[in-house]
Amino acid sequence: MIIKELYISEFGGIKNKALKLGSGGGLTVIYGENESGKSTVLLFIKFMLYGLQRRSQSNIERERSLSWSGSVASGSMILEYRGREYKIERIFSDRSRVPEKLSIVALDNGTPVVTEKSPGEYFLGVPREVFESSACVGQMRSGDINGEKTAQSLSNMLASADESIDTASILKELNSIRTSYMHKNQAGGSIFEDEAKINSLRLKLDEAKNASLAIEGKAESFEKTKSEYDALRLELEKKDALVGQFNKIALIKRFEDLRKKETELPTISKEKEICAKKFLKTDFFPDRTHVAELRAAAREIDERDRALSEKEAEKKAHILGFDIKDAERGEIAEADGGKNEILAPALKAKADAKRLKDICVGLSVASIISVTAGIVLTVLLGILTGVGFLVAAGLLTVAAAGVAVRAVKLKKEANALISSLNEQYCADESNLAERIEECLKALALRRAYDSKNARLEAELALAEEFYEATRARAYSLLKLTLGENAEPEYSELVSEAQRMTDFLDEYDALVREEDAFLRMLENERQLLSRYDEEKLKSEITVSIEDATPEAVEAAEREKSFCTAKRTALEGRLTLLQNELIALRIKAENPIPIADRLAELEEKVRKDRAFYNALVLAMNTIEDASASMRGNVTPAISKSASEILSRISNEKYNILRTNTQLGLTLDIDGFGVSSELLSAGTKDAAYLALRIALILQIFGDDRPPIIFDESLCQLDDKRHLSAIKLLCSLADEGIQIIIFTSHGREERACTALGAEYELITL
Question: What are the boundaries of each domain within the chain?
């Protein structure tokens, strides 16, 4: 079969595109960069031959096939098959009520081809899975030959000479049927189960014969027990009637007891009045809250008394820690500006006097020096030269005298100031500053004392106020129970609280007793209200004097004994009745059991005969499969070896395969597994095996062989040899279609001078 033309109406991302492949077969190279649509064209070829996969099989491929805009896949293919041209048209839509339309027409006469098969199965004779796993060669990757389906197809062909007949599945199904009849360990299957049923029926037949004898014995025991039960039931009715009489007598006595207790109620109420008169001194009736308030008032009086005592002690302990006169002097010193301001005039006067004294001394020294210089110069140089120095000495002496007078005056003023301060602060000149500082400190202490004293007096007044208020509240509480003469003291409050507690305990106990007595009376009235005392008396047939406690106890005991015995007999009757029912259910008619037994024995005989025939058929199929594999596998190995030799430039001449498609290469006389070879050598070997398988599977009706990036891992030399091989296959009439994103396939075909058609997407 040769694909001649493709027209893609809507498919994936392609619309209205026509592709003409090599005329009369030959080699076609379809080149395109990544994302150019090569995979879409390959999917379109599969779509035209086999349609879309079901959703459960390939959702991704299905989504890639439908047009992106309208969820439609449509187009046509023109192919040549056995010398005639055919046109396949196919439309698929997810949105149409009839999702798919297909037509196959012979172009020479326009005759439609009527077939239930897909075009691929009609023209190639193989299903989609076999076509994809054989004629569609993808990248080899790790020596895989497009999955397990190719190996399975070859295995089917080797075993049955027909790749569509899955011998392994048939043997598996036959083995499943065989196992359903009898497991290998003879401990399972329908035959095993039927034989178990036969044994069970034989036991059941024996049981049916013995069941009737057991039924007679159980029936006799049942009747005997029932007679005993009926007699006991009559006796129990008598005992129950006697107990009923005693119960009516007990009710009559309860009526009498109720009337007696009702007469005791006033006495119980009177005891509460006596208790109140014994304790209460006023008309006020206390409660637990009043007692709690008394105890709280006692605690508060105690706390307020301690607080007042503490404040009085603190006030008493607050004494003067300073001299009052010194504090007064400090107040004057503070008003005068403090220590520095007070001492500043005297200190300044003394400092000025000292400075003038120093100036006076300096002037005197200068005067003496001038006199000495004048005398010396007069003697040595003449009178005129020393006169100036003598005059200067006189002026200096006069100035020194004036300064000395001013210094004495300032010193007197300073001494006068210091003397005044000494009299004011009671200190001599040496410690005047310290005395002023002491007076200022005494002033600070007086102020702190006055502040604390004012605070203590306020706190003491507040404590006295709280104490008096607490006593007033305590008096109001005590007055309620003790009257106007109450004394709100701590001991009195505690004593009264305890007295009221004792009263309430005793009174509450009497109240509870009265309440319990009233509840008992009410309950008894409600209970007895359901009965009529006179009617009960009229129904009594037993003397009231005979209803002694001993007689009542004996009647109750005898009734309980009879009741327990009746319960036991009821249980025995139920057990015997159930046993009778069970025996009657088991007591089947032996005739149907015997018929069923004979029927099962005949079925087991036939099933065993079928089982033996099934085992014989499986052994025959397995022997035939092994024989076919042994005859065909060498032919595949021979063809693959020749192809590999051409690809590897005669480096590898022998390729061997086993029945599981395992590969080995002969290298220097040694068989080397394909798993030990380089990726390129491994791909070349599997490429050779793939082509050999295609030639073997399809025979004369050879399909187009599609290579999808299959040669990308071969080195340049082997790549050229592989292209040369594919060109020779094309020359032999096999259509070769190569999908590639590389340019070396085109360069290799050009270098070999091969005839090929290039389609660029």
Answer: 184-280+491-540+555-588, 317-358+406-462
